Amino acid sequence: MAKLSSENQFFDLSDYGRNIANFFVKFLVNTPVTPIHVTLVFGFCGVIAIFSILNSYYILAAVLLILKSIIDAMDGELARLKQTPSYSGRYLDSVFDNILNFFILFAISIQVAAPWWVFLLPYFAIQLQGTLYNYYYVILRTNSVGGDSTSKIFETEVPIAFPYESQKVVNILFKIYLLLYKPYDRIVYFLDYSASTCRSFPNWFMTFVSMYGLGFQLLIIAVFLSLGLITWILPFLIGYSVFFFLLIGIRKIWLK
User: Fold this and answer.
1) What is the pTM of this model?
2) Residue 244 placed within a domain
3) Is residue 213 part of a domain?
4) Helix, strand, coil % (nearest 5) of the chain?
5) Residue 2: inside a domain
6) CA-CA to 222 of 20 to 30 Å: which in 54, 105, 179, 211?
7) Residues in the chain with pLDDT < 50?
């Protein structure tokens, strides 16, 4: 199922696993498997990837990171096919992504004996990059399909849980989500607060922005790992932020 109207669909560099995910998710529609189960599987996959990095199994880690991205695309698609959108699933997915990003980079920093600040800078960088991608994407998605029941441009208050999920769980996950993401949301909003007034973004621009999507970030890490270039991952991710202000500048000057 498409998230965007046909005229707003763009080539998403971070969503390379979508077709594979859509193929396998069809086999889960008429089973007891829920989107939350799929989210837990991609979380487990990420944990194994971390242990693989720590034990120098870099090829295996690279495969697992790509597999994680594919599975990550399955939970939302399964929720749409089963017509069971979930706030708990939406927040759990984001919480897992943030925590796994932290420990993936932490494992890499241990392997290359990097100082703590060299580890924290790329972590901060990829979180900020991902926030910019999500910010523009959710704006486009909201305007394209007339609103999204689980993804919002601004997260300000606890949503009311769907009848088939626990309000208590939603409350807890929402608080964790805000703790992990609110600082980055505020930074991006401060830098480009007027973006939310745009009705649409050109497809070429969104393709450019999608290089900051989590799937593409993990693909970059996987490529470096598979080539045995683990020492280059952290400095590359820091330098990769050079496009951050360029994208904001393009949006503010030419895409009003």
Assistant:
1) 0.93
2) yes
3) yes
4) 75, 0, 25
5) no
6) 179
7) 146-147, 149
